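Proteins fold reproducibly. Next comes an illustrative record:
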Amino acid sequence: MASNQANTGNYLNEKSPFTASGKQVPAALSMMVDSMASMVERAKIDLENVDQRARADLENIDQRARKDVALLDQRAREDIQKVDQKARKDLAILDQRAREDHELLRKVRKAKRLTS
């Protein structure tokens, strides 16, 4: 017996035109689902690529920040050394003046003792 019904098994990629519940799925809906699944897969790949680039960018930023911190540390050490040298010179000048003032006071006291 010949049947005049269309062969329902001739859909794209020979997929079953029925869902798990046994209901028939139109070809357009099946194509739309396939397209959406493909878009989701591409989105996952794109997200992984973006994640990899973000990690690489963060690594570059981290390396630059470390170099900047090292440079700032070096400059700070140089500045501290300059301030220390200046302070030592200033202390030497103050010490010299204090010694001169002390010597002057000693001479004045000695002179007062002689005159009294």
Q: What stands out?
A: Confidence is low (pLDDT under 50) at residues 5-14. DSSP finds one helix and no strands in the chain. Helices lie at 27-115.
